[in-house]
Write a structure and sequence with these properties.
The chain is built from 9 helices and 16 strands. The longest helix has 15 residues. The protein is globular.
Length: 324
Amino acid sequence: RKPKIMKINTKQKPAYDIIGDIHGHADELEILLDELGYNENNGHYRHPQGRKVVFLGDYIDRGPKIRRSLQIVRGMIDAGEAHGILGNHEVNALRYHTSDGNGGHLRKNKKENVKQHQATISQIAEPFPDEWINWMDWFAGLPLWLDLGPIRAVHASWNSEVKSQLKEIGKLEGETLRTHSIKKTVPYERISAIINGPEAILPEGFWHETDDGKKRTEFRVKWWKSLEGKKCDDIVFHNSNTAMPDLLPAELPVTTPFTQDAPITFFGHYAIMKNKPGPILENLACLDYGAGKGGQLVAYSWDGEAKLDDSKFTSTPQRKDNNE
């Protein structure tokens, strides 16, 4: 009798571990990767079963090990073990260090901007200036979003119309960067919609204080919902510590309600400061749980499911140093 020949299925279904904003916390990133089953091999992390990581941006600023964080992220991306997108902090850095042609920079080097970016300046830009130029060139080549079919990734908010308008943007450098860095212009607003998310304006006379003590009249909104006719307190995102007025906003952004048939979408940016990670909708999750502000670094492990599963969130322990 001839031996029975068994066919081996070499087509492996994609499986992803999506990781939220790191903000220079390399120790937490390595703890999380270890928890997810990744091993460091030949200078980069990989998973023995072929899983890939999707990084949601904001690799820099705030934390104590920004350089190491970048090395881990880039090492995995360059080795084909991960995908990564731009966060608003990387775009801010590109603007901060790029001349506006008039003796200044695309992002003004004023006190509050220096403070936000100081950890990166101190850890990389000043001690390793040539290396920093290389990092900025790498930032410029990262995409603003990822569409992987059944799942999607964006830093702050998914906007299909804006995505279509930015489809041919290419590398965010040179004249392209300058064009998209002039405030109150359409190109600037398009980039902002993706990396910062839409914001509403408080009624006249109202303001709220941010974590870094800045007074703002704008506030972040639940961009996946219809906002029409809703009061400020109903649409603010996330768990703001400042009470919103029981009034309609003075100005509302245009949003498109998220539908149940949309692919699962992951985003970061919003620094949710609560203990237990979980989905917003069955196909929508924010994975930024404030790692840069003393919170947790969070991942979601996706294995092909059509609906998000509460049990598939993994997080590092919340730190006590909530003062960065």
